[in-house]
Amino acid sequence: MTDHTTDPRTAASARPATASHATETAFLGLGPKDFRLLLIVIALTMLAPFLLNPFPAGSELAQFNAGYPDLMQRFVIFGIFAIGFNILFGLTGYLSFGHAAFLGVGSYAAIWMMKLLTMNVIPAIVLSVIVAGIFALLVGFISLRRSGIYFSILTLAFAQMSYALAYSVLTPITGGETGLQAKINDPRILDPGAGQSLGRANLFGLEMGSSYNLQIGDWSFTFNAGYYLAAIVMLVGFYLAIRLFRSPFGMMLRAVKSNQQRMNYTGLNSRPYTLAAFVISGMYAGLAGGLMVAMDTQVGPERMFWTASGEVVLMTILGGAGTLIGPVLGAGMIKYMENIVSKINDNILHQWFSFLPDGLEDALVAIVYPFIGKGWNLTLGIVFMLVVIFLPGGLVQGGQKVARLFRRNNRKGGGAESEAAKKQPAE
Amino acid sequence: MGILEVKNVGKRFGGLKALDNVNLSVQENTVHAIIGPNGAGKSTLLNCLIGKLIPDTGSVMFDGQSVLGRKPHEINQMGISRVFQTPEIFGDLTVFENVMIPIFARRDGAFALHAFKQVMNDRDIRERTEAMLADVNMLDKRDAHAASLSRGDKRRLEMAMCLSQQPKLLLLDEPTAGMARADTNNTIDLLKEIKAKRDITMCIIEHDMHVVFSLAERITVLAQGTPLVEDVPDNIKGHPKVREAYLGTAH
Amino acid sequence: MDALILQILNGLDKGSAYALIALGLTLIFGTLGVVNFAHGALFMLGAFCAVTLNRILTLSHTVVDESRTDFLGNPMKVDVPYLFDIVGPDTGAKLIEWSVPLSILFAIPVMILIGVVMERGLIKHFYKRPHADQILVTFGLAIVLQEVVKYFYGANPIPTPAPSAFSGSFDFGVLLGFDPYVIIYPYWRLVYFAFAMVVIAAVFAFLQFSTFGMVVRAGMADRETVGLLGINIDRRFTIMFGIAAAVAGLAGVMYTPINPPNYHMGMDFLVLSFVVVVVGGMGSLPGAVLAGFLLGILESLASMGWVIDLIPGINQIIIYLVAIVVLLTRPRGLMGRKGVMED
Q1: How far is the alpha carbon of B59 from chain A, nearest alpha carbon, in Å?
Q2: A230/A207 Cα distance (integer angstroms)
Q3: Which terminus of chain C faces fewer neighbouring Cβ atoms within 10 Å, N or C?
Q4: What is the pTM (predicted TM-score) of this model?
Q5: C-alpha distance from C43 to closest chain A C-alpha (Å)
Q6: Which helix (H) or strand (E) holds A333?
Q7: pLDDT below 50 — which residues of chain C?
């Protein structure tokens, strides 16, 4: 058989611009755009204590400040969860309705590590990832024998089973309904002070709960050790996810989503690809679970309930499934709503609208009220539906649409800018 | 000895004899067409060739190995690439990625966990992809989403994906089914163009006589589950048996 | 033996609810090809139809009853339902007592309307979208519906008793020839089972014997061909969605005396109903009904003492376990049709 590929040089000369398609690696094996994205995310997470506390403490708007450690930790931990879920759903299109099970299993593994070994979070986190990975391998091996709705139901069934078992029979391991907490009399064989005092989760002595407060004028900013640990873990997870998205493996996963039949007839076995994606995404969930325990040293079975699995689905879709930054944004948005919007009550609404005439004020409050406070779930449901209907690419796609709109307007404005706009590659 | 050897293949569905003692040999570097009226057993035979169906009797050997009971990706790894009735491509991916995937598959096998390499930094794959796209005149569409291509371009892309694997055998399943005359002719030209550039073995399953006589070097006529005749196109054209079984009923 | 029968009987009411919800799910899936995650919410809405009717009937105004005095010695103020003014206190009290069965009449038009609006307003636009999108948008809708209900009715379960004629239990065992006091069975559960059978029979009869049903069945088998025949299949499917919604709603109405309705009851049932549908076989109506009862009874049997002693926790996971085994060994489910949602 003769070599029938054309000389590559002819191919190259046919299109001088070809070279530009070979991705220049900026740093860390990322292309320039991805690297820029990573830098932005690093800046945002590192400066989060400032960015999330834009209002002076004690002011009326201070309730919109999200810069307290507990919530910031949740932002990044659920960010990790969603990044992992996105590797499965965003790339392969397999919709798992049972991912909370891996988060829960990771949490249980972590708490046991803390009870038995040491309150140092490193062994706990490492084990949570490993255990969740093994569990995901088992669940994935079985669930991935089916696709579509059947896969969703299978994962749901496994997660509900885990939840039911953790709640009942496995009580000796899981603590049943009350769950598990770090206790004074835990063995903690590596900790010197074990048995005398309640240990605190720490990283080689640095306590996760320790914070540094910075007062600048009326503003108060909190820098929490636990948050920064979780944030760094998330950044590493995010970086690895970018690498994965741009890798041949990531491309194969997108091929699975696009056309599995063609993939198989192309000589690729889709099963190990989807299984690998499933396990990796399960490990991210386990990591998130381990970090949760590292922050508050407790765990309960409700963490595995299917609504928890539903939540990560919401986060990922809302932000933009299949995009890099979308799931993190979605996680942040939902957690912000859950913690901040849910606190707004009708008194606050009346204060806001107090400048209006009384009748109008009451009417406006009556209209807005169902959507805030305890009704924030309603807002979430509506926003989610709107996103699925009109923006299948999530908020990221929405942002891109808006940006494109602006660019088009700019082009009308001036010729120089229109050139720049054209050079922007379509995403 | 042909590259594809079908021996005594029979297949029944309940009481229906779909294939009955089919013998067929596809020689290397030929374009071999299997034709027959609807219901002659073409699809059943095809499904036996790609491992989707396991015949009740007989054997299907490709390159000295049996294909029976193998999974699609294994059959492809043996060297059989397949073109579908309607082009099967990765619609959500770019044209360039569409062609890269089969090249990866041929080089790295059915599964490889390259999760931390950059796709575009793989020079070898990139150059081979570029060369392939240049070969089918699609370099200018490299960044287009495959789903946005015209039907003709989709067919061209699918062909490029198959050819990029340098298959030992290219299976074409009614490549012009449901096409307008102009599209059919374009496809014929594309196939001729491909054939002219390289040595390749093709097996076309088709009921359109026009396509078959434009391309095939050898033709097997299938009727009611058995091969009626096998010969060069010129002899098939005037063959009384074929006229009776095929042309007589089809027109 | 008697214990076994008691457990089977106990499984019937849950089984009936599973069967009814799964039946509606399958109707929607089979006709429209849509995976409806909001179906549990329809069940919940049905239950709240009963609550609503009860509230409407007991809508009251305050009158001063001079004949009685409160503890301060003032004339007592009592709430009197408007209903009493219209039909008189005796009939009124009877109507209120029978509000749950009465809600059937109330729920049917309401649920059909909700179903039709849902299909025309939302589901219609998702026929051509991937199943994942359908799951997601109906999941979102389910959240919205249950939050709306939560807003109006609060988060706590609302007790909605059965008419006193059917409250309490009777000795079912004696009827079957067992010793007295062995099989005590609540009346309402029997009513619920009988009701479920009637609804199921009605749906099957409707599909089997009406021309409408014939077209729908043909449409389930091959939508395109029926469309080519010039039959307006879309409108029929809209109505079918309404009927499926009504079936789910009725299941919810009658379930209220068994379990006081709360806003998230739909989701609780939905997860299990999906499992039921999958076990029964996607797209198979008899399969859905059969699997519903089967799993309901199986769940009940698995909660027997000696079973739990043997395999601890089995009652919690039996349904899921069965689903996993069925899905892996019989991908089409017990009675699934060929070519429905297969890989």
Answers
A1: 21
A2: 13
A3: N
A4: 0.88
A5: 18
A6: helix A326-339
A7: 342-343
